[in-house]
Amino acid sequence: MEFTRVELNQILNQPGPHNFRGMDLSGADLRDADLTGANLKDANLTGANLEGANLTGALLQGAQLKGANLLNCNINRTVFRGAKFCQDTTTFTQGFEPKRVGAVAEKTWKLQLVTPAKTQQEVDLREAKIAAAIGKGIAAAKALHAKEAARKNRLQRHGQPR
């Protein structure tokens, strides 16, 4: 379930603790929100801004925290066990070590593409589902290789250099 900013504000203006278990709060603006005792188990907080939020006693077990901003949060008694974060994109208050409280760091994959002009670009694949793309890429590479081999054979038959 996703929330509009207005709906989220209406919920947060009600007395807590709030139950956001398993909900999609990706990209939500939760700056300075009072989430004391909130149930955020298995919630998707990807890219959420929680800067300055009060997370005292909140449950973030299994929550997705990739790209989330948790700077200056009150995290006294907050349960992070099994929460997933990305060391490159999740921001915690300096000195906080999420692994020490049971959070799990997920790998970030970066792919550098080299184009025919030999320029490099970084592509962010954090949320990509690439299994099928890899298969298609391999098939395309094989087809391109076969096409190039056929071209070379034609050139050889006609006595032209490769």
Structure characteristics:
162 residues; alpha/beta; two-stranded parallel sheet; two-stranded parallel ribbon; 2 helices; 6 strands; 22% helix
Q: What does this entry look like structurally?
A:
With 162 residues, this protein is of the alpha/beta class. It is 22% helix and 12% strand. The protein has helices spanning 5-12, 131-157; strands at residues 69-70, 84-86, 91-92, 104-106, 110-114, 120-124.
Task: Determine the structural class based on helices, strands and strand pairing.
Answer: alpha/beta
Low-confidence stretches: none
- Counting DSSP H or I runs of 4 or more residues, the number of helices is 2
Terminal CA distance reads 59 Å
Helical coverage, percent range: 10-25%
Number of strands: 6
Brief characterization of the structure:
The protein is α/β, with parallel strands linked by helices and 162 residues long.
SSE arrangement:
Blueprint: H1 5-12, E1 69-70, E2 84-86, E3 91-92, E4 104-106, E5 110-114, E6 120-124, H2 131-157
Parallel strand pairs: 1-3, 2-4
Antiparallel strand pairs: 5-6
